[in-house]
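debug: dumping io for the single-chain case to check the tokenizer round-trip. Nothing else runs in this session.
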Amino acid sequence: MKFKSLLLGSAVAVVAVSGAQAADAPVVIYPEPVAEPMEYVRVCDVYGAGFFYIPGTETCLKIGGYVRYQIDWADNDDGWKKLARGSITLDARTETEYGTLGGFIEVRGDAYSGYQGINLEDPAYDPIDSAVASVFRGVYLQQAIISLGGLSMGLSDTLYDAGLSGEFDSGGGDLVHFMRYTYDAANGMYASLALEEADYDYDYTPNVVANVGLAQGWGTLNLWGAYDATAEEFGVKAIATMRAMDAISLELMGTYESGQNFYSVSHDGSSGGYEYSAGAYAKYDFSPRASFGLGGQYFMSNHLTGADDYAVGAVLDYAIVKDFNTKIAVNYFDGDSVDEGYLKGFVRFQRNF
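debug: decoded output
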């Protein structure tokens, strides 16, 4: 009996000790797997609406562009001419110790009447005009600009490229390779100096273009000067814009050229540029969505023929909805360079984004 009691007591003790040890043993809890956090695109409001941060960087990017469909007409045409254009822009900006580092690209694609593709190998195919269609058919680079602070370089319109707001005028200039520096003062004054290559002969001597301007509450005043190193001729231009009333704005332009050069103004019915030209444009805003403009430009002493010519035009702009605009333009060209004055115009639909 004593032996059985001793054996039973030992068994109870073993069970008790085992239970105590089990109670004291650490419990390992394995956490459930956690999903990787999603990296959403962040809005970048430093440079205005439409910019966002490229994931993993401090670079802000804006994607934009437009789609345009235009129907043209002229007195000497046998029918309507059509243009379909698509433009895509990429605008990248980053802040650095030297100012904003920027990169801007614009790529365009055009298709005129009778052509549906995006590239054309046969230069003899000419649905409109060899001087225009052979250049502007297909997909092409319109702008490619690198900028840091006030310094910029790449491909874009010349610094001299400016005119009146109508569709009848000519201010001179075209696409160029360039290096440019712009100084922007805090009081509304600014100045730019550019070296430009506009020739196809790989000239070592660049053209030189300068601009000084003033922007105030009443409007703007700009003066340009350009020297064509190949032609060894120069041109100057002044443009003033002002708002006479809340709904009425006025623009004035005057140009002078020492001789025919890359920056010469041109008349639709002639070539060669003009020694002098003067123009004006007035616009009335019916509402934030609708406006009407009327203007003209007089061209004096063509460099090649001595002709005097003129152009007048009217433009009606209307925004159907936000970012979807229509434009109707009618222009008249006449003068010594043409046997008889003629009309040209177009209807344009454009969706911006």
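debug: round-trip ok. The chain has two helices and 17 strands.
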